[in-house]
Amino acid sequence: MFTMRSIAVKLFRAAWSNVLTSISIITISICLVMTMSVYIYNANTQMKEEIQALIGEMDLMVGYNPEQNKLLTKSQIASFEEIYGVSKVSSVSLAHTFVENEKSTSFYTVGVENDDLVKSRYHFTVNLGPKDIVITENVARLFKKEVGDTLNITFNKTIGDEIEAEIDNFTIQEILPALKGTDSPNMILLQNDVLKTWMDFSDDQTAGMFALFSTENNMATSVGMELKLLDETLRVDIMSDYGEFKKNFQALMIFMIVLSFFILLISSVLLLSTFQLLFYKIKEQLMVLRALGASTKQIRTIVQLQLSSIVIFGVLLGITVSLLVIKSWLPQLIDLMKLPSARTDLPIVFVLIIGVSSFLILQFITQWQVRKSASLLPLQIATENETLSLRWTKWKTIIVSSFTVISLFLFLNAKFTDKESGKSALLFLLATLLLCGILLFIMPYLFTALLNISLKPIRSIFGKEAYLACQQLMPQVRKNMPIVLSIIGLMVILVFGSSLFKSVQQTSYQYINSQYEASIKIDNELYDPTFKSDLVKEIESLPSVSYAFAKSDNSFIALQLENEWIPENYTTVDFEKYIQLGKLNKISGHYKNGVLIAEKFAKQHHLSVGDSVTIGKFDYTLQQYITSGQLQIIGIIDSPIQHANLVMDWSSTLIEIEKPVVTTIMVEADNTEQALADLTYLQERWPALKLTDKESIIQQNDEMTYQRWSLFVGVFVILIAATCLGVLQTLLHTIYAKRSDYAIQRLIGLSPNGLIKLILTQVLSFVFYGLAVGTILGLVLTRLLGFIDEGSTVYYDFFTLGMTSLVFLGATLIVFTLQGYWISRRKLANEMIEI
């Protein structure tokens, strides 16, 4: 005697290929979602570990802002150590000193204790004595120092109205290499007891400028609140709450959420489409069972057992493949593609949560098919595919209107929510997904309306076969919507992912171009005053160099505006060179006493071209501003140059008096490699010069960008292939199932080539519609999510979208040309007998 379970299993034999397809779809979707989720989980853990490596064991940093002119005392440090939850407190001081009598630039100098907390923060290992120091790799390079060498340090301390210089020699005990992924800073570490005596407002009770705290687990916030109660003027920075740390991961998390959402959407609609094919295959058996008296409950049990078996096998296989990918293939992929090192830990609880959640979601989705199959009578099972219509009802209007209002409310709420809190991003994400869901819901109705409007023009332009094909599409719109939704979901993912990738890449390019206005950049890191703008002519005389121009540091000058002295910074560039390069518009006026001003600054102070302004400097002896001359405004620029509202030419009389330091020379070369070799003589005269080229920086940036995204590119490729195969398979079965209709049409006069044209018109209509709507929806989704970061610019990768669309359309054209040719060439007699 057969049980419901045995009947359900035996019915699988009628559609074993569809069963395997369903299981494979679930396996692929589970594998993709789980692999990405575990990858992002490990990346998040690794990011926290890297932050921990960067800031050490420090959980809080406490001190006063510089303008408060206050230092931490020894009694305060003692009271800090008594707070519940505090493990360790270490005092730190800060100053800027001059090294080796190099007066042009100062160096960041930190006074530290010898405890483990401060060592973990600044990454040194030796115990410092009164005459010992630790320096970074870049400082050692600039002054050609090694461990054991002596370094001369000068600190200028203000006592009353006079400046006294503290000068001493220190022995280098350690040289700190640059941390991974960072540039080596110009930093010096020495004993805190030495440095704190150099600071203004320091006395015998001074402990340091600020203090580092390590706390017990999850106690940083409560300790920070306790510190604010002790002294509300204290500045308390909780390292785990730094906004920058959270922002670094926000874009990737949003990308992951959207990607996972649409992967599940695509998987679901492909699964539903495959289920429909499965039950089309076994509908005769279901008809027999219903005719023999099988109850609704029995049919529901059979269908539920079948679908649950498919889901269970798919989820278990997906988890198994995911484990294999994460523990075996992913490390090999990271090594093969030279990706940044990543953790491949397998959090079992996290994996089980994803597996169980996916199972429950898929089980919920299958209930629609269970309910549908169980409620049909024998005659309905035979005819269900023939009567599928779309009708817009009143309740649909109410639902769409309600959700539209909710999404608009969320957008408005997100607009006026604090961006730093992270709540704004969540609201934007929810509103965007809700709005896209509404658009997806109404798309079939828009498609049907568009077909109705287009029927007559299609007949006039493309002929009767195309007209007949579009007319027959009407009852198929609802049935084939899973196909369309799959393509739409795929294109949304592709638009969003490729746009995010391109936006990151283009933003990097913009930053690089802002730093490198020519192919080679020469930096005067020690602000050596002997490195002058006259060198430009010498550099331009090299055969490998096209042109060069110099830029200065920013200096301060005071303008007398409306009987008030306003201090502003100015920079110096070559006006003629900037005009030739299109960086400035043509300027009318004398450069010697002329100045360019930023448009915003001009509007703020009601200045225009031709106005003269009085300039001056602050006299510390007289304690007032002294007039030093006048400048004429000869042009207004759109935005500041190097953050300076005032821009001078190198020929300006002010520059001759002030003699600003040349910080950068930009060199444009015909052959970058040859030019770098020709320019090495400069480093022999000024060893501290740093030569870099734009091409190498861009190559390094591209390599890092592709490395970060290569895993997700692999996900896209798998997803595109899976979706394409699923869509083509479903359409192939749909066309094959309609052979009876095609046979009748051939009997009444449709030619074989006309039949091919009819089939191609039908399938290409659905594919093209899905591609077009998916692209539009993807552009809308990406643009709306772009509002999360209002200052960012969204870039679209139309080349990738175009190539993917062409591949999809090309594959559809080839497959269904072959199928149409096969169907159209079959003998009608045989076709009618088989049907």
From TrEMBL:
Residues 21-198, 483-674 form the MacB-like periplasmic core domain. Residues 257-372, 715-824 form the ABC3 transporter permease C-terminal domain. It is a multi-pass membrane protein. Keywords: Cell membrane, Membrane, Transmembrane, Transmembrane helix. Pfam families: FtsX (PF02687), MacB_PCD (PF12704). The chain crosses the membrane at residues 20-41, 252-280, 301-326, 346-365, 397-414, 426-451, 483-501, 709-737, 758-781, 801-823. The keyword Cell membrane applies. Its main location: membrane. InterPro entries: ABC3_permease_C (IPR003838), Lipoprotein-release_system (IPR051447), MacB_PCD (IPR025857). It is found in: Cell membrane. PANTHER family: LIPOPROTEIN-RELEASING SYSTEM TRANSMEMBRANE PROTEIN LOLE. Belongs to the ABC-4 integral membrane protein family. LolC/E subfamily. This is FtsX-like permease family protein.
